Structure formats: C-alpha cells, structure tokens
Amino acid sequence: MKPSKKIEDAWLIAQYCEGHKSAMAVLVKRWHIKFCKEAYRYTDNYDSAKDIAQDAWITILKKIEDLENPEKFGSWGLSIVTRKSIDWYRKHKRTLDKHQKIVLEKEASITEEIDLVKEQDMSDNLRNAITLLSVEHRHVLKLFYVQEYGLIEISRILNISKGTVKSRLYYAREKLKETLKNRKHEKRI
After folding, report:
1. Model pLDDT for residues 106-162, shown as the tens digit of each residue
2. pTM for this one?
3. The dihedral of CA 42, 37, 51, 28: what is its sign?
4. Maximum CA pair distance of the chain?
5. DSSP 8-state secondary structure symbol assigned to residue 121
6. What region does 148 belong to: left with phi over 0, alpha with psi -120 to 50, or beta?
7. How far apart are CA 157 and CA 151, in angstroms?
C-alpha cells in the first residue's frame, strides 16, 4: 500500500481517538469493501463475507486506541478479518467440503461429455489455474501481487512467519507454472 494512504489512515485514527467520529466513517468507507473481499475469499458467500467484515469492524472499534502504529492499520485490520474468516471457514468446513465435492463431481461428468471448442486466452487460463490452488496459496498471491503488500506485512496479516510466506509464494508459482504447462500440452493433443 502506498505510504500516503498509510499516513491518511493514521491521521484518521488520530482524529477518531480525539473524538471526531466522522473520521471513523471515512476509514470504514476506505476499507469496508476490501475487508468484505478478503472475507469472501474464505466464504464464497457475499452475506457471510459482509457479516465477517462487520464483526471485524466491531473488534477494530474496541481495539483501535490500543493500536501502537496507526500507519499499519491496513495490515492490522486485514489480519483481524483474516482471523475471523479462518474461524468461519473452520466452523463451516464440513459443509463446504461436501458442497465442493458435489460440485466437482458434477463438473467432472460435464467435462467428460464436452470437448473444449474455443481457445481461452492466457488471463482466463491463469484465473482458472489460480482457482485450483489452495486457499492459503491464493491468499498469499493476492496479497503480494494484487494488493502489493510486502512479505513482512503479509506475515503479519496472516499471522505466519516470513519464511512461510516465501514458501507459499514459491509453491503457488510453481503450481501455476505446472498447471498452465499441462493445460497447454492437453490442448495440443
């Protein structure tokens, strides 16, 4: 995240702590959609993602005055959303696994019946390959490449070591290379 945005976040937090409640409204407006998107990665359900983000805001409001470095609000807030999302995911894992199994079985039977007719462009192949990655690998890729967080910030957001972040990035890239290479080979045959 750009340093100027971090400074603005810190200023808004200082204003809120001094009693300017409208500063929190601005902070919520800046971050709520990002928090919802973060939660959605775990839930694949908009309503659940909104609930998680809302719950995260409640926690943030309770703890905001204890935040030692307000410039790190983004990674701190995302780590709260991530933890709440992981809790939600663990709570609903069985149901999600059953649902995913049914969906995969249906997709497999459809795939057997239908030949691929049109060539997909590289971005579609990449998006599809990313969906095959584990939640942890997709999440690290998104934080690193899309949201442009550094390794240390990602480790704080996900509450894992920097080495684990590096490892997940490496294995995610390798899996993407392998998947894209295999798809390219399958299309030739």
Report:
1. 666 555 554 444 445 567 777 788 888 888 888 898 889 888 889 999 899 889 999
2. 0.58
3. positive
4. 67
5. P
6. left
7. 10
Taking the CB of residue 67, how many other CB atoms lie within 10 A of it? 16
Contact (CB, 8 A) for 165 and 154: yes
Mean pLDDT across 38-55:
90
- Residue 158 in tokens: 């996900």
Tell me the C-alpha distance between 84 and 90, whole Å.
Answer: 10
Check pLDDT > 80 for residue 72.
Answer: yes
The number of helix segments (H) and strand segments (E) in the chain equals 8, 0
Question: Cα-flanking dihedrals φ and ψ of residue 150, to 5°?
Answer: -80, 170
Of 154, 157, 188, 147, nearest to 169 (Cα)? Answer: 154
Q: Whose CA is closest to 1, among 153, 176, 166?
A: 153
Percent helix, strand and coil across the chain, each to the nearest 5: 85, 0, 15
Count of C-beta atoms within a 10 Å radius of residue 56: 25
Nearest to 131 by CA among 164, 103, 91, 93: 103
